[in-house]
Amino acid sequence: MSNSITSFNQQKDSLFILVKSLSKSEKRQFNLYVSRLGGNVDAKFFSLFKFLDKMKTYNEKEIIKSNIVTKQQLSNLKAHLYKQILISLRLNPSHQNIRLQIREQLDFATILYQKGLYKQSLKLLEKAKGLAIDNEEKNVAYEIVELEKVIETQYITRSISSRADILSVQAKNLSRLNVITSKLSNLSLQLYSHLLQNGYVKNNEELDFITTYFNQKLPKYDFSTFGFREKLWLYKSHLWFSLLTQNFLQSYKYASKWVDLFKGRKDLISLHPVFYLKGKNYFLEASFLAKNNRKFKEELAYFEKEIEEKSIPFNSNTEILIFLYFYTNKLHLHFLEASFSEGEYLVKIINAKIETYKSRLDYHHVVILYYKIACLYFGMNKNKECIAYLGKIINTKDLKVAEDLQCFARVLNLIAHYECGLDYDLERQFVDTYKFLLKMENLQEVQKEFITSIRDLSDVYPHEIKNEFKKIHTRLKKYESHPYEKRAFLYLDILSWLESKIENKPIAIIIKEKSNKLSKRL
């Protein structure tokens, strides 16, 4: 495991990551860009680029030994190379989008204005402003209007009165919407940060705090004036709030609205592919949490079709997100259908892609995939494989991984050891798990009740074991709909495991039967 962590940490040099993210066409573009500069083909920064491109892991000592640059010069040379690569990428047609085009037009108009060519500058600005407003780029649209106002004060025409009125109204409306958007995006960011740091609300006090915070920070608005951008940030804010408060029906509602925004403006998918992918992932996650199997399968099938038809822009950024979101939800599909064995083929694919993308993947996301793979193996009754993947999480002590995930990895580890008959190691596992939960200050009643019960099972006679499982099930069942304890069952279906022991059936059969009953009710 330590080698795996080291491997990830070695990749964290910004320039090295940028070089390794370049596609073959982008590298060709950079070679052409350097050659066009004249006299730069043999320049030190280009030699450094070629050397980094050949390296498998970043090693500063090897760079110094290559005699390309001295240790004292390395920092400046790296900064220069980084800048040149970015300039080359900006010139690459594959990175040209509406936002860059608008910025370019604004830059050109500024140059014309500085040369005193006011009429030409205003003409270019009018075109750029229309493009910005059509594509919901209202921040830059406001910048354009402000420059138009400056130019109009110097370019005197008979229409100055009407132009002044028009520009004043435009500036006022854009400013108002930009302020609301800023407030909504701030609220969204703060709620998301709270979710990452603290997880779901755990008691009435936390619920009151987050509800009060949300209501106080939500700005007053007129929904009828909202465009795509304002609605997007509003839906995001409501989504984070509903996730924090574990209101999964509301999560489903606002994730659905988020995705529908893009379905109504498909032209904006190419401009905001990351927002589109994130919205799609949250909609799938909300459908999964709400156990809406039909909607989940429909949306996942549509997602797969979009990937196959390449209708979502594919670049270094979206490539990673598509991998994470698609394969996470492919695993979720097998959890919903209890088709664990049929999903085992995904493990090899996921591990191969983790290896491919390791220089650009946050290890937090890798650990989440490991936990889901562990759950897949647990559902297949392959407990040794389950324990192996849980070990990758439990041993990751020097990384800040979501506390909830760490907690439930340890609880599942206890169950897997019990299932394997590894009783000799169970006491140590119990002590380690309990110590960790206490240290995290995250010990829920479900966890406390369960791990104590598992420990006590070692003293139960074989002929009494089924009756003991029934008692544990009864004690835990009351928490299934508890507003703050129910989150435990999102990470680990303890009740289905207990039912499998009571009814002497594989856990996959128990989950399948529950899924069928739920589908009939829906």
Task: Give a brief description.
With 522 residues, the protein is mostly helical. Helix content is 75%, strand content 0%. The relative contact order is 0.05.
Structural write-up:
The chain is an all-alpha fold and 522 residues long. It contains 26 helices and no strands. It has helices spanning 2-10, 14-21, 24-37, 44-54, 60-65, 71-91, 98-114, 118-134, 138-152, 160-198, 204-217, 228-244, 248-264, 273-289, 293-309, 316-337, 345-357, 363-379, 383-394, 403-420, 423-440, 445-456, 465-477, 488-491, 494-503, 507-521. α9 (138-152) packs antiparallel against α10, α14 (273-289) runs parallel beside α16 and α23 runs antiparallel to α25 (494-503). The longest helix has 39 residues, at 160-198. It starts with a helix and ends with a helix. The relative contact order is 0.05. Residues 1-10 have low confidence and may be disordered.
How much β-strand is present in the residues?
Answer: under 5%
Cα-to-Cα separation, first versus last residue: 44 Å
Count of strand segments = 0
Q: Topology as H/E string?
A: HHHHHHHHHHHHHHHHHHHHHHHHHH
Q: Please identify the structural class as seen in this structure.
A: mainly alpha
Globally, the shape reads globular
The helix content is over 70%
For the sheet with most strands, the description reads: none
Number of helices: 26
Q: Spans of 5+ residues with little confidence (pLDDT < 50)? A: 1-10
Radius of gyration: 28 Å
Report the mean per-residue pLDDT as an integer: 85
Oligomeric state of this protein: single chain
